[in-house]
Each structure stands twice: as structure tokens, then as C-alpha cells.
Amino acid sequence: MTDPRSAGARRRRRHRVPLPAMAVVAALVAGAGAWGIVRAADERVASVEVVSGIDSVLAPLPGQGDVDVDGDGVVDPITYPALNYLLVGSDSREGASPGDPDFGIVGDEGQVGGRRSDTIMILRQEENGGLALTSIPRDLWVEIADTGRSQRINSAYNEGPERLAKTISYELGIPIHHYVEVDFPGFRDIIDKLGGVELCVGHAARDVASGLKIDVGCQTLDGVQALAYARSRHYQEWDGSSWVEDPRADLGRIERQQLFMRAAVDGALGKLKSSPFSSGDLVEAVADSVRIDGRLDPYEAADTLRAAVGDGMHTYRIPVNPITISGNAVLELDDGAQEVLDYFRGRGPAPTEFETTGPDAT
Prior knowledge:
By secondary structure, this protein is an alpha+beta fold. The chain has a domain at 21-194 and 276-354: Nucleotidyltransferase, domain 5 (2-Layer Sandwich). Helices cover 31% and strands 22% of the residues. It has helices at 24-44, 103-106, 161-171, 184-193, 223-231, 250-274, 279-289, 298-310, 337-345, and strands at residues 49-50, 82-90, 117-126, 131-135, 141-143, 150-152, 178-182, 197-201, 205-207, 212-214, 217-221, 236-238, 243-245, 290-292, 313-316, 320-325, 328-333. It has a 7-stranded mixed β-sheet with strand order 1-14-7-2-3-4-15. β12 (236-238) and β13 (243-245) form a beta hairpin. It is globular, with a radius of gyration of 20 Å. The two termini are 32 Å apart.
């Protein structure tokens, strides 16, 4: 496999605005327009935390790291049908305080220290418009890059974001061009700045472990309940006589997270259409809540993501099969997985059989 590392020069870091918690920035760009989001960035954002070391393992961007592919002495420009963003939801409690409404459930750094990957997603930005998203199950069994050992893929993040990005690039063959990470408090704050996200469910649901409690029908989840919904691994629905837990565990959570992301993007679009000047507050919340790679440029993102959001966001599942390895209950890629991976590798068509965007998709 071709080494995705690039020796290309870093872009300037001043006034950087990343993708927000799981793609809401795409909606910001579409609703406010390129000029609106750039003004918001310039006026409100002084700096965003850049992840040290991540750039060296990212795939080269078009125009960077061009090589002589066919050996004819002519440098060939690197092109892609799409760019891939690695989106990581970290379970870091950094910034949490006893005054937070969900402090008793989420905790703080003293109770849960460090950072672990709670959610791993790939957002594909098409060259000519459109967004596609897939989730990588935390329990997928892979060889961790540069270690010679196999483990659950989320364990790669324990050794740093660059290890996770490199593992996805080398073991799954998906080139990663940009990196965005948001932690628990940041996710909650972004949803609150958005004014909440409307979610419709067919049954009342709860998760005692995450603090989730939602009624049947449509309601607006604030940041606390949105985080509880996104974190839920013991999701229970009321069937009229008792609470029934979703047996799919983390795979069910992935499906719900994708549903929530689509609702969040739709909500951001609606909010900005009715109040376009609200983009500044959202951008500020995003800037305070995320960590990004050093190559993410708001000016280029504004131009490209605006058209992409207009075409909508499609979500896909990676087929997996539960297995046991050395006593560990984990997942392996199942039939059809290569079709989905090839699409995100830039080698195949959209895997419509595994699309979860539609209301009847499975």
C-alpha cells in the first residue's frame, strides 16, 4: 500500500475553523455562505488546538506531495475523487466541572482521566458535491500500525491520534486527509449553541447508564440529552409493558449516531436559514471544542463544503460479524465490507446496498 505520509509544507494556522462535532460545520457553510463563515472565523476565532504530529501521517492533499507515478520523469499531480475526514469522539472529560448538569453521570478528569476514542467515523467529501459518512466499530479487530500486535481498533487511539489515523490508512486502506476530534463537554456545548436537535422516535427510550430519557414522538434534545443519546450502549425501548434493551449494543449505537448526525445537519441548515447571523456563535463554540490537524483551512473548506451540503449527506454501515479471539468478544469484517471500504478508498461506486440514510434502510 502506498505510504500516505506527506512532506508538504504546513498551511498557515491563523484563524482555523474545523468541521464541528460530526459535520455540523458543513451546514454552517451552506447556510451562512463562504463569506459569512470566514467573517465569523476572523472576528471570533483566535486559535484552535492543533494536534501535534498528526500531519505527518495524513495522505497528501491535491497539489502536495506529487510524485512520478509512471516513472516517465514527469511529476504527476495527486488527485482524489473525494477527501476523507477522520472524525473522533473522545471520551475526555477535560473541562468538565461539578456544575455541569450531567456531571454525576459523565464525571470529570479525576474520575476518568486521559482520552479514549468513543466514536470513530469517516466523512467523505465528494470532489463534485455531496457528503458520505461511515462509522468504524470500536471493537473491529485489526493490526495496530507499527506495533505487530492486533487489538480492537479503538485501542490505537490510546497511543495517540496519529496511531489511529495510520492504522485506518494502512489496515483498512482508507486515505485520511484531515482530522477532527471533539470531547464530551465540547459536543454538549455545540448542540446547545445550535439550539438543540429535533429527534423523532417510535418508542419511549432510556439508558440508565448514560442518563438518557426520551419520550415517544418528536422532541428537541439539548446538549445533555444529545450526549446521553450518542453515548448510549444500553439503549432500552418501552414496548408497552416492559423495557427492552437493544441487543446490538455498539452496532445499534452506531445506527443511532448516524441518525442523530443527519438530524443535526438538517437542524443547523434550518437555523441558519432563519437566522444567518447566528453562525458566529456556532463557529465560536466549535473553535472552543475541537482539536484538528494543522492543514485544515476555513477558506478552502467554505468553498468546497457549501456545495457538498447542498447535495445532502448519505450514511453507510460497514458489515461486520461478531467473533471471539483469545477470549475477547470482537468484530471482523463481513461480506460486503470491502464494497463499503472501496468507496471510501476512492476505488468504487457508492455501496447503495449498505446505505442507512433512508428511513427504511437497515
